[in-house]
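Researcher: Following up on the earlier apo prediction. This time include the ligand. It's zinc ion, with the SMILES given after the sequence.
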Amino acid sequence: MGSVYKRMQEVLNSFKRDYDLSDMNANDELLLDNLARIFARLETIEVRIDKSDSVSDLDRLTRIAERLRGDASRIQNDLSITRRQRKGEKEEDLVTYITDIKIRAKKMLNERLSYVYCPKCKMLLATVWFLYPDEKRNAVRIKCGRVIDSDEGIICNHDFAVTSQELKENKNMNLFEGSEEILPT
Ligand SMILES: [Zn+2]
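Model: Understood. Below is the ligand-bound prediction.
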């Protein structure tokens, strides 16, 4: 009996290692204990069947083994062991899922973020996300505050407006002289 119990614990541990059983209730855990005990008993009975040299023993042991297999498959159904995810699969799915989200987020940002440069001093002043880029009247007006010469206290002061439509049609960037040279790749 001692060795069956030890084997039962080993079977139990392998279940817990291989399957995500975190949602099990107390009753499920009792069933799982039973299942492990049945597997451990089956192993010892199969050894005895192999060693058996009397027909009546063989017949008796085979019937016991069949009953145990029936019990085991019933419990496995009740616990839906076979439908449970193996731990490795679940973790792999999560990694794929997160990577996928990152790629989609980056793609979305690249599609939606526009770069607005000062047409006069060519400085990047804003990255803009228009919620309605197709609405033709949507525009932002910016006054460039870049300091051109700090000694003289001169600032660019260029005042300009850009529409979402213009940004959309020019690879998410505003048009100005020399803008094609700094187009984002
Ligand atoms: Zn400027």
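Model: The longest strand covers residues 124-129.
Researcher: Noted. I'll compare it with the apo version next.
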